[in-house]
Design goal:
The complex is a heterodimer of chains A (76) and B (363).
Chain A (H helix, E strand, L loop, with lengths): L4 E9 L2 E6 L2 E6 L12 E5 L2 E6 L1 H14 L2 H4 L1
Antiparallel strand pairs in A: 1-2, 1-4, 2-3, 4-5
Chain B lengths: L1 H4 L4 H15 L6 E5 L2 H9 L2 H5 L3 E5 L4 H4 L2 H11 L4 E5 L13 H6 L4 E3 L3 H10 L4 E8 L4 H13 L5 E8 L2 H8 L8 E4 L1 H7 L5 H6 L4 E3 L4 H16 L5 E3 L11 H10 E8 L3 E10 L8 H4 L15 H5 L31 H8 L2
Parallel strand pairs in B: 1-2, 1-7, 3-4, 3-5, 5-6, 7-8, 8-9
Antiparallel strand pairs in B: 6-11, 10-11
Classes of the chains: A alpha+beta (76), B alpha/beta (363).
The complex binds iron/sulfur cluster (SF4).
Chain lengths: 76, 363
């Protein structure tokens, strides 16, 4: 129930957006968003509301940090 | 969306596991971390992370499933409302199968009660708009992730001038029960994987009390398998280095200050109140009640109803499970008298419930 899903914004009409992930589309109210949301952004959608934006740069940095932990010789 | 799939990459997960092994080596007892969020519980079972982490790290599930911590009396009240003439009950799907003392919303629906599943609280407002001659009561259950969405629905109903939309509110807030569990000597919690999307709203600062006053490391963690592993790695590193601070692993979504707009809307519509947690008991200032200005939308204030005496189910260990003291496998009813199809306790109902996750994915 508490599951929030990252989805990409495909259209915005006033404070209502439509977002999509893996071919599934959902309406997402932007009522709770203080910052601007644009088409193409990733947002976290929870119970029909966008609750946060997903920062792509940040995601890539986190992945890079995780990959640093991965040293193939450790797993041999 | 490809790069997000990388958070499920097996090599990354195993690479982090190696690091964790290094950090936990040579300790006399396993590091014990509690995952507070139901979504973490699901990921941990689904990807078999407990097995990968043992014996150096022991993960225990906390009270992070909103349906599971909702007291049985709330379900009984919802059932009573569903029997009132001219009433539509609107709810997230999870609540329907939660057994009350003698019935559930699902059973009431089968008997002819008008109980509808909605995906968003705004769908419940639309129901009220289309059914002006009937009252719509929405089941307001959930933590800080959900509470702002329900607050939003009340503002929307007010904007539309509706007088037939009501919320039966039982929202709870997360940091308080963590403080209570921290002081439980039986649990010996060494660190918290703090919830992902609750923190998207409240930010990371509320956990400072735990880290700085109680000396318990806290890491706000995402719920993909690599996120959970990295969160554990960050906790293990803090312990190994003798530090206890708040860190954000899930920085792609969670900011220190949280979501200000959502917090404002939540504070406008709700006011803090004492709340009863199933399994844990009453915790001061750990719930949200509808504020006086919005009393016309508060089902409990406006729509009186008679409710039966609550009776807990014999043999169900949900309460102990929610405190992380026992696992589902300790319950004699698990998988026998209690299954997701015929749940005895709330922990078996919601997909985020520990018993349901254990049943679906096994050890
Ligand atoms: S298995 Fe069922 S009866 Fe046992 S603790 Fe879990 S929910 Fe309760």
């Amino acid at each position: 129930m508490c599951v929030g899903v990252p989805m990409r914004v495909i259209s915005i009409d006033g404070s209502d957006a439509v977002a999509e992930i893996d071919g599934v589309r959902r309406e997402a109210s932007l009522m709770l968003m203080g910052e601007e949301v644009r088409v193409g952004d990733f947002i976290i959608v929870h119970a029909g509301f966008a609750i946060s934006r997903l920062d792509e740069e940040d995601a890539k940095e986190t992945l890079a940090l995780m990959r640093e932990a991965f040293k193939p010789e450790d797993l041999a | 969306m490809n790069y997000l799939d990388e958070f499920r990459d097996k090599e990354v997960v195993l690479g982090l596991a190696e690091r964790i092994k290094g950090l936990t080596a040579g300790r006399t007892r396993p590091m014990t971390f509690m995952e507070v969020c139901g979504t973490h519980t699901m990921a941990i079972y689904q990807y078999g992370l407990r097995g990968i982490l043992s014996p150096g790290v022991r993960l225990i599930s906390g009270p992070g499933c909103p349906v599971c911590v909702t007291p049985i009396g709330y379900v009984d009240k919802a059932v009573a409302y569903s029997r009132l003439p001219g009433t539509i009950i609107a709810s997230f799907g999870d609540m329907l199968r939660v057994p009350g003392s003698s019935s559930s919303l699902m059973e009431e629906r089968a008997k002819g009660g008008d109980v509808r599943i909605v995906y968003s609280p705004l769908d419940a407002v639309k129901l009220a708009e289309r059914n002006r001659d009937r009252r719509v009561i929405f089941m307001g259950v959930g933590f800080e992730t959900t509470a702002p969405t329900v607050a939003g629905s009340i503002l929307a109903a007010k904007g539309l001038g509706l007088d037939n939309y009501f919320v039966l509110a039982s929202h709870k807030t997360i940091p308080k029960p963590m403080e209570v569990l921290t002081s439980d000597p039986e649990l010996e919690i060494d660190g918290y994987l703090c919830p992902a999307h609750v923190s998207a709203i409240i930010g990371a600062t509320p956990y400072r009390v735990l880290a700085e006053k109680c000396g318990i490391p806290c890491v706000v963690t995402g719920f993909e398998p690599a996120d959970v592993m990295q969160g554990v790695e960050m906790l293990a590193r803090q312990l190994a280095e003798g530090r206890s601070t708040v860190e954000i692993q899930y920085s792609r979504v969670v900011k220190w200050e949280g979501n200000k707009k959502a917090l404002e809307i939540m504070a406008e519509v709700f006011t803090p109140c004492d709340a009863e947690w199933r399994g844990i008991g009453p915790i001061p200032e750990s719930g949200l009640a509808i504020a006086g200005t919005y009393a016309p939308f508060d089902a409990e204030r406006v729509v009186p109803v008679e409710v039966e005496e609550p009776r807990e189910h014999m043999g169900c260990l949900c309460g102990e499970i929610l405190k992380g003291k026992v696992t589902p496998f300790d319950c004699t009813l698990f998988g026998k008298a209690c299954t997701p199809e015929a749940p005895v306790g709330a922990c078996m109902v919601s997909s985020e419930g520990t018993c349901a996750a254990a049943y679906k994915y096994g050890r």
